[in-house]
Amino acid sequence: MKLIIINGPNLNLLGSREPGIYGTSSFEEYFAGLKAKYPQIELSYYQSNVEGELITKIQEVGFDHDGIILNAAAYTHTSVGIGDAVKAVETPVVEVHISNTFAREEFRHQSHISAGAKGVILGFGLQSYDLAIQSFLDS
Ligand code: DQA
Fold first, then answer.
1. How far apart are the first and last CA of the chain?
2. Nearest-angstrom CA–CA distance, 36 and 55
3. Which of 22, 51, 52, 68 is most buried, by the most CB atoms less than 10 A from its CB?
4. Is the pTM of this model over 0.85?
5. Nearest to 97 by CA among 2, 3, 7
6. What's the 33 CA to ligand 1 centre distance in angstroms?
7. If you take atom 6 of ligand 1, which residue's CA is the nearest one?
8. What SS3 state is found at 64?
9. What whole-number distance in Å separates Cα of residue 5 and Cα of residue 45?
């Protein structure tokens, strides 16, 4: 099984960015743990702060991977282009968020990703990514 985690803007700063909301672990540290936990999965990771680069990556992997785990971060709430890319590809996309976006500011309640996603997992901290992986293993 081939899965990719795609992270959007500012998620490269996990560990130091607003630790009260996003925790103290860097994504690289957490990702190493996921790789060790799921040796049977071909699991890769991509992060970009640039909207177009995220769209290009979704298109690139969206016809040969078994799943995309996408945290589009702030672009979740603004990007029609990323939402369209999610709908355009064949690979199922699970939308994830570290925080419970519904318990935060109102502008975070809207997602351009959800309508095209297979499902949404949010609010479980970094464990949201692990739960998304499990959703692909169980389906
Ligand atoms: C986030 C939630 C977004 O609202 C925010 O802009 C992020 C991270 C999350 O994982 O909780 O950058 O997607």
1. 12
2. 28
3. 68
4. yes
5. 7
6. 21
7. 74
8. coil
9. 5
Q: Indicate the CATH number of 2-137 among 3.90.480.20, 3.40.50.300, 3.40.1190.20, 3.40.50.9100.
A: 3.40.50.9100
What's the one-letter identity of residue 137? L
* One-character DSSP codes across 17-51: SSHHHH-S--HHHHHHHHHHH-TTSEEEEEE-S-H
Q: Give catalytic residue positions.
A: 22, 97
- Please state, as a whole number, how many other Cβ atoms lie within 10 Å of the Cβ of residue 22: 19
Residue whose CA is at the smallest distance from ligand 1 atom 8: 73
Q: What is the pLDDT of residues 39-56, one digit of tens each?
A: 999 999 999 999 999 999
Which residue's alpha carbon is nearest to atom 12 within ligand 1?
Answer: 73
Which residue has 């998620």 as its token pair? 11
Domain ranges for the chain: 2-137
Task: For 84-131, write each residue's pLDDT tens digit.
Answer: 999 999 999 999 999 999 999 999 999 999 999 999 999 999 999 999
| Nearest atom within ligand 1 for CA of residue 96 | 10
CA of residue 97 to ligand 1 center, whole Å: 6
d(CA 52, CA 45): 17
